[in-house]
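As promised in the previous annual report, we have extended the structural survey to additional targets. Below is the entry for AbrB/MazE/SpoVT family DNA-binding domain-containing protein.
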Amino acid sequence: METRKVQVTGGSTFTVSLPKSWATDNDVSSGTTVEFYPEGDSLLLTPQSETDRQTGTLDVTDLEGERLTRAVMTMYVSGFDIIRLSAGRITTDQRSAIRSATQSLVGVEVLEETTDSVVIQDLLDSSELSIVNAVSRMRLIARAMLEDAVTALVENDDDIAQDVIERDDDVDRLWQVVSRIFRATLRSPRAAEELGVPREDCFDFHSSARQLERVADHAAKISNLALKLEAIPGDVADALVALHDDVADVIEKSMDALVAEDSDEATDLGHAAREAILEIDEHTRTIDDMLRELEPVQAQSLGLIVDSLSRSADYGGNIAETALQKAAPRP
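The corresponding structure token record, generated without further manual editing, is:
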């Protein structure tokens, strides 16, 4: 840390000098334009950023399959708009993994292919993306997935179960978008300003999006188990539907608290969601007692489903905790 004294020039202009080492490291010299971003009682200064799209290069010679897919996703989340993947020769399996990655991301397409490289590009304008809208969309999909997963189970409907499993990819794509936006706000004050959301709030939305992504994963898990189960007893089905309704209520209250503009309303909803989890814990114990009367294999699968619903409630509780922190007074 370095300190500087504020001086007055011309009778009305406040000036402060910049540390020479910082200026040198960031190519700031006489005539360079810098940007100021007020943030509460802080003032952030940064060299004027370039508007050119960010290009990244990755050597994929030793990467295949899931590792290559994950590497492409990481480059995307890190903020690169154009990603050049190169090797001595791009194999057929590598091209397949790259296509799989592009299909798992929003707005990304293959721009160019040659023997030794593949170039993919993000076609979306990052300044037009909204972290709030992306999280809201995740909320709607995850909520519907969880409801449909339980419906598929109690109605023994394989078509609904399969549809839920496929929708998990939609939530994953939105999660990648949220992560990309959040990282951009950490790197650049301009990104946060264009987004119109304080960086602390961006953290809260990013954290909550992670919880919604996990809820969607459990909905897909329930659906996979539903595909293997035959019809279940009516009393167990009714109990699972009731448990789902309680879990969905926790998630809804938590998300309402997160987006509430009034801090008192957010606090009331957040506490209500957290308190409801205690009742869900009691509800799950009751269902576990019912499962002891069933055939062991069926009871084990249904026990995993109860656990997924219980965990989904816990994820809702995590969102409620985030909402409470977001609504609390800030120093």
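Residues 10 and 16 are 14 Å apart (CA to CA). The longest helix spans residues 296-327. These points will be discussed at the next consortium meeting with the crystallography subgroup.
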